[in-house]
Each structure stands twice: as C-alpha cells, then as structure tokens.
Amino acid sequence: MADETFLLTPENAREYLTEQGFLRADEEITMSALGGGVSNVVLLVEWQEPREQRWVMKQSLEKLRVKDDWRSERSRIYREALSLRRLRPALGPAALPEVIHTDFNRFLYIMTAAPAGSQVWKDLLLARRADSQVARNAGLLLAKMINASRDDELLNPDFQDRTVFDQLRIDPYYRTTAARHPELRREFDNLIAATLEIRTSIVHGDYSPKNMLVRGENIFLIDFEVVHWGDPSFDAAFLMNHLILKAFHQPVASRQFLGLVIDFWKSLYAALRPDAAPGLEAMTLRHLGGLMLARIDGKSPVEYIQDEATKDRVRKAAAQILVEGPRTLEDAVEIVRRSMKDEGRKY
Ligand SMILES: Nc1ncnc2c1ncn2[C@@H]1O[C@H](COP(=O)(O)OP(=O)(O)O)[C@@H](O)[C@H]1O
Ligand SMILES: [Mg+2]
Q1: Of 179, 294, 329, 347, which is the most buried if we count CB atoms within 10 A?
Q2: CATH superfamily of 119-340
Q3: CA 221, CA 205: separation in Å to the nearest integer?
Q4: What are the tens digits of pLDDT across the range 215-264?
C-alpha cells in the first residue's frame, strides 16, 4: 500500500536502512543531503572504513520546490529505477548507478553513488573547463541509449507513459513559452505535435550536464525521472542547448563551448546505427530553437543568464532557428555565432 506520509530525511534514513536490513546497529555511517534537486529528497550515505561503500537514497516529491506552482506525479520514481536496471547492461556499469533497493510504496529507491571525486559536469563548464572528450562521451552515451532501444524490446512497454514528460517538459517549457511568445505559437504547436508523433527510442528527458557526474573523462549519468519512450532528438537538443546557453553566458569561452556542441553531435552521429533515428538532425534543431527560448522565457529559466542583453541575443537566435529551420547543425551554430555578435536577423 502506498504510504504518502513517509518523508525521507537525514534523521530517519538511518532507521529506515536498519529496518530494511542494510545496516547493523553498531555500524557507523554519515548521512548528508545532496543539493541541487528541486523535486526529490536525495541523500548520500557513506559507510566508514573499512567498508568504503557510498549509496544514494532518492525519494520523489509531488510538489516541486520552485517559485511557480508545479506538480508531477510521484510514481515517476518507479520508471527511474526501472530504466537504470534495464539500461545498465547496454551502457555499462561505469555509466549508470546500480539499483540496490526499491520501495515503491514510499516512492524511493537506493542506488550506488558515483565514484568519489566525481564532479558535476555543469560545474566544470561554468568554471570554463570545456573538455571535448567529455562532450564526445556524452554523444556516445546517447548513441548507445538510442541503439539499445532498437535491440531490446524490453525497453519499450514499461516506458509508454508520457505524463511526466508532459508535466515537466512539454507544458512548462513549450506551452508556457508559446503563451509568452504568441508570434511563435504556430512553431511551438507544430513542434509539440511532431515530437509526440515520434516513438522510436528510450528518452532520458533531462539529458543535461547537471545530471552527468564526471571523473576523468567518464560520465556517470543520473536522474532518469523524465524517462519515456519517444523522440530521441529531445535529448540531443537538450544537451546542446545547455552548452549553447553557456556560450552565450560566457562569450570569452564561446568558441570552446560551441566546439563542444559539434564534438558531441559528431560523436553521437558516428556511433548511431543508421536505422536508429531517422530524421534526427532536423528534429533536433527544432527542439534546440524551442528549448533555447524556453530556458529564457519558460517556467524554468536558467539561473545564470540574468542580463537582458544576453537574454535578447538568445531569444533572437532561438526565434531564427525556429522560424528558418536550418538544415544542418553547422547552420544552427552559425546563427548562434552571429547573434552573439549582434549580427543576426531581427524577429
Ligand atoms: N548516484 C549518485 N551519485 C552521486 N551523486 C548523486 C547521485 N544521484 C544524485 N546525486 C546528486 O544529487 C543531486 C540531485 O539528484 P538528482 O537525481 O539529479 O535529483 P533531481 O531530480 O532532484 O535533480 C545530483 O545533482 C547529484 O549531485
Ligand atoms: Mg538532477
């Protein structure tokens, strides 16, 4: 029976682990809340030596802790844990957490933590550490996920539900932005209709540098709460959008960041099976325009772009990509470059 009332905290987690048989009364652990999450309780549990075990406990919340009222069903945690289990054989044990325990009555699961010393890729990028091998690995990882979707019919049936994708992506990003930009309403409506038509692959749904924990060049991918069966170009565009927004944010490093976009894309394309994702490039660029604008004017704007002139440059490039529909990634990147230099067209 679902227990809506149990809220995981650093204080009761020890008791929970003991009750479930994961911890003896005399074992020493340290427990810390991991920051960053707005929609979940996420705790790190570390055992003292000699057992250097590190686990993460994650529980989904219904109401997201953001300014606007924004809700999502808690059962998304089931699909998150299930997708980790299903994808780990294809992506490899270094790329994903291992699921240790699930407790869907209490909307939580336990997984292994990323190796000690891992850093969130977003933090490295904001410190202008633009490592092209990490970008290539992000492309390779996505290609593996898309290819695995072709090979493994197990991935399909359990991820059909796209309610959470709608609640956390389509609605707050695309519908909200379209309402604030009536001049682009048609482009957004068509984009929403087109993406919902495509059902070819498992989609992470939050394929962002904030969910990639990097050690050396390895990426450990987390946070599959928006996972679903759908349109893989959403993931490709999501990642590129983050890299592009960082280029707008830090113009002195824009050449490196835009280089990462190309590195990511080339490595994704090179590793993709030819039949795996037809029409990926054109659809990725449509999402890219939509997502760029959404992270400026949607319900969840990026926190690091505050300056109005920068926002306007992003808006202009996003609108141009949405309206003109560039055919290749290089053309889209050129639009971005020009708008950074205030040379782009006015919409
Ligand atoms: N398996 C893990 N290993 C190490 N750190 C993790 C792990 N899972 C989550 N974290 C940390 O906790 C933060 C929040 O977790 P995440 O799953 O991304 O939740 P949210 O959906 O709330 O963003 C992450 O940004 C990351 O820093
Ligand atoms: Mg996250």
Answers
A1: 294
A2: Aminoglycoside phosphotransferase (APH), C-terminal lobe (3.90.1200.10)
A3: 12
A4: 999 999 999 999 999 999 999 999 999 999 999 999 999 999 999 999 99
